[in-house]
Design brief:
Two copies of one chain form a homodimer. In chain A, strands 1, 2, 6, 7, 8 and 9 form a six-stranded mixed sheet that branches. A two-stranded antiparallel sheet of chain A has the order 3-4. Chain A has a two-stranded parallel sheet with strand order 5-10. In chain A, a hairpin with a 6-residue loop joins strand 3 and strand 4. Among the domains of chain A are: about 170 residues, Nucleoside Triphosphate Pyrophosphohydrolase (Alpha-Beta Complex); about 60 residues. Helices cover about 30% and strands about 20% of the residues of chain A. By secondary structure, chain A is α+β, with helices and mostly antiparallel strands. In chain A, helix 5 runs antiparallel to helix 7. The interface between A and B is large, with 42 and 43 residues. Chain B binds a DNA duplex through helix 9.
Chain lengths: ~375, ~375
DNA sequence: GCAAAAGTGTTTCCCCTACACCCATGG
DNA sequence: CCATGGGTGTAGGGGAAACACTTTTGC
């Protein structure tokens, strides 16, 4: 209720941030940068305000920056910043707005900054490398980014969580998951995408620290040479050479090698396999009904990831996928029956949404038996 | 890809807009203002850019304005603007962010304006009256606002539609609808809230013009004295006196008088009843399966609004509502069996969401019969 | 008695889950 | 032959929609 005469509008900065999510080797990864300078902008645990503190080597930020000229739309700015800071190139239509973040204390540097966050979800981001304003740029496992001691600057932590929820929504109601499949894909390929994205480790309330710890423990057990402090557990699990070698044998863009096994087991691959086993095991733990006492939200996460039923469900959705008669492909692990190939349908919306916890999954009658 | 040296950040304005939605007499209404000045900012049908054109008496805008001082958060600004322009008072926690609207051409006036839109959904807004910057402020039927010849300035049209979708989501997953019920309410009361909010007339693709036309036709048939041009079809359907009189007889805040009938039929009430019959009929039309050929998105809107099953569903959701043993209340229309009273439960999230089109409602076997 | 609304009971349908089982492949 | 993953078949449990019917009120 100030005097309404000629309001003294404060100096505003409008920024954009991009949560670039992708899936590598069955793990959800996000593009992060390490900003230049000696100070990081970290949220004060008590008070909630962001303060400048001495920069640590494990401080990260999402790529982003200011809208820079008059005629630049918000999405355009987001694309540009992503490109500049990480060399990742996306089209404006690939960005989905998450929302505006405008808390007063969210940027201690100068004036007042409102940031519009976008999410990009794509399998074929270029390998990031640092550009302007960033000393470093790379993809990191999401659980790793969110776990101690790593820190995300500003309110990027919240943005990341919001982005994941948004992508989950998109995966329920749009064929966005097909971006992670080749033109011809198997139902197993498709299912993997959903399994990763809906993994309980990425739930808002997930204990990412525990996850990350277990992953780290696996890593140290393998006494892999790259064990520095805690960063980069998996993004460097492969040396460049063996990575390329692996890529050759993978039918899909960076797709799995399955949840277990693998043809040529290097030591690094061995670590990887164990980590993935952990995730898989954790997924089961989180979705199984153990004690009939508490059916928390987590429990509802029980998804139709039973291979058989997932397939039926996906095929049932009109315009989602269509089978390619006669064409099959050997499963990625090399074993098993060759799978039927599909291609994407014409639908832009998935009408019966693919994944809905439609009932509060009863503890199953099996308890009686 | 401009030179990245010292980016010339443009002059940005940060604004907020509020979509204040409420339900009056079974119709969804939104708070709009008429700005002062001789020019309206209307989107050019061809080109999509907003231009200043001579103001017409049927031009409206959502309440909103600039964030005015350094320490003012976005929600605070939204609250303040709503209060200033419409005298409606809301608490920050009642506002839900819809998103940021930052298209380049969205405000032709000065510099570049990014607006953060919020939605408020509450039954007990004060009666709005114009404040600063607004020559007029009132609640209007949503269908009326969206229909010719009325115009919403800037991109407020889109904001309104987005707001409605957001509220629908909230009604599925949170007990927000209970805000429209008294502390003690019947399942019929609750059901009405859902029926209004999910009415096909408010679907993004709805033919609001047709709706508004039919409502207007009803109005002119009744040769009600208030028939001006097209504005205020229903918001003035009651004279102040009979309005107060009606309020007395209504058990809930501005709740219905049922979808038909009414104890004391004044002429205005007669019009109203007819209009509501139209809406009801339209709802049925839109949700019935007519030709088994096209099962459009509209068709999926078929909701569980069958009274009996809605009640069962609501009672099933844990923590949503709890019955008050022994207490009943006469239905608002005065007729019918007195209904069981309920009070709100402790749940903040509705766990099996109340309304989900879980199957692509088959054309019903009835075709065969 | 009749209309209107609430509430209860019941039937039918079919979705979804789970499980069993077969298939095809590499090793 | 076994392990592995793909795929089909199917039984049963259960939710929900639809419908029938009763109850209680005002007129």
């Amino acid at each position: 209720m100030e005097p309404t005469t000629q309001p003294k509008v404060p100096e505003f900065h409008v920024a954009v941030d991009v949560v670039a999510l992708t899936i590598k080797r069955n793990l959800l990864q996000v593009a992060v940068v390490q900003r230049k300078g000696t100070q990081s902008c970290i949220r004060d645990p008590k008070g909630g305000v962001v303060r400048e503190v001495p920069r640590e080597p494990f401080d990260y930020a999402l790529p982003g920056g200011h809208v820079e000229w008059q005629g630049e739309s918000l999405v355009e700015a987001a694309c540009r910043e992503l490109l500049e800071e990480t060399s990742i190139e996306v089209k404006p239509e690939d960005l989905v707005q998450i929302g505006a973040y405008g808390d007063v204390g969210r940027d201690p540097r100068s004036g007042r900054t409102v940031s519009i966050a976008y999410v990009a979800f794509s399998p074929d981001f270029a390998s990031p490398f640092a550009g302007s304003d960033a000393a470093n740029a790379k993809f990191m496992d999401v659980v790793e980014v969110l776990a101690d001691p790593n820190r995300l600057e500003f309110d990027h932590n919240q943005m990341l969580r919001d982005a994941i929820s948004r992508v989950r929504e998109l995966m329920e109601r749009t064929p966005i998951a097909l971006k992670f499949c080749d033109e011809e894909f198997t139902l197993g390929d498709l299912r993997h995408v959903y399994e990763v994205m809906f993994h309980p480790a990425y739930n808002p309330d997930a204990d990412t620290l525990r996850f990350a710890d277990r992953i780290r423990r696996e890593e140290s057990k393998s006494d892999s040479s790259i064990a520095e402090r805690q960063i980069h557990v998996l993004s460097k699990a492969f040396s460049e050479s063996s990575k390329n070698e692996l890529m050759m044998t993978m039918p899909m863009n960076d797709m799995p090698m399955g949840l277990s096994s693998g043809r040529k087991m290097t030591r690094d691959q061995d670590v990887l396999a164990k980590v993935q086993k952990l995730l898989e095991e954790e997924y089961r733990r989180a979705s199984r009904v153990s004690t009939p006492g508490e059916k928390s939200a987590r429990e509802k996460m029980k998804l139709s990831f039973d291979a058989a039923n997932f397939a039926r469900k996906a095929e049932l959705i009109e315009g989602f996928i269509e089978r390619i008669p006669g064409r099959t492909r050997q499963s990625s692990s090399g074993t098993g029956k060759p799978a039927q190939l599909y291609r994407r349908g014409r639908a832009e919306k998935l009408d019966p949404p693919l994944i809905i916890p439609r009932r509060a999954t009863k503890p199953a009658k099996r308890t009686a038996k």
